[in-house]
Design goal:
Helix content is 70%, strand content 0%. With 200 residues, it is mainly α. The protein folds into two domains: 17-61, Orthogonal Bundle (Arc Repressor Mutant, subunit A), CATH 1.10.10.60; 72-199, Orthogonal Bundle (Tetracycline Repressor, domain 2), CATH 1.10.357. α1 packs across α6 (109-122) and α4 (65-80) packs parallel to α7 (124-150). The chain is elongated, with a radius of gyration of 21 Å.
């Protein structure tokens, strides 16, 4: 009688293994390359060279340049919209504004965001993907506003669509006009101003 051999899941061969450190290197290379050359001149070859990997390594993860860029942008942008529950609307909103302002003023993001918005005018798929990212971010911020309503810090009839617009528009406009959206005094004032506006 032979001893039963435990059933073990086969580990994929090396080519099929998606190593986290490789994906991280590709992500860094993609954003750096995108900031330097823009979406129009971005190539999988350029990203692979900068990341120190082969082109097939990229294509195993993302079939096209478009899918790669939009997947990475969505991953970073949506994660940046996570708002901690600090226990108060003021704390939540201030934390969200600080993270968002830091994202806008990041050296890479400051070059990538305008470029992708411009590309969205020319390329429908990019525009659709950016809208999807925007809706995902808005959904997370809406959760923050609902917490404020549930705590009694905001009126139950708050115009959520307008409030969501106001949570992001001032920071984007300030960055676009060459201001400093991440200055602590500006963020403090903006937080208080928005809460006052929401309360009517």
């Amino acid at each position: 009688m032979t001893e039963a051999v435990p059933d073990r899941k086969r580990v994929p061969a090396g080519a099929a293994v998606m190593q986290p450190q490789v994906t991280s290197a590709i992500t860094d290379a993609a954003f750096t390359e995108l900031a330097e050359v823009g979406y129009g001149k971005l190539t999988m070859e350029g990203i692979a060279r900068r990341a120190g990997v082969s082109k097939p390594t990229l294509y195993r993860r993302w079939p096209t340049k478009e899918q790669m860029v939009l997947a990475l942008v969505e991953q970073v942008a949506v994660a940046a919209a996570e708002v901690p529950d600090t226990g108060s609307l003021h704390g939540d909103l201030r934390a969200f504004l600080q993270v968002t302002a830091g994202g806008f003023s990041h050296p890479l993001a400051a070059r990538i965001i305008p470029d992708l918005l411009a590309e969205g005018i020319r390329t429908r798929a990019v525009a659709d993907a950016l809208q999807t990212v925007g809706h995902s971010r808005r959904a997370k911020v809406e959760q923050m506003l609902h917490r404020g309503i549930d705590r009694g810090e905001l009126p139950a009839d708050l115009d959520l669509e307008l409030a969501l617009d106001l949570c992001i528009a001032p920071l984007f406009w300030r960055q676009l006009m060459g201001g400093e959206p991440n200055r602590p005094d500006y963020l403090d004032t903006l937080t208080n101003t928005l809460i006052a506006a929401f309360r009517g």
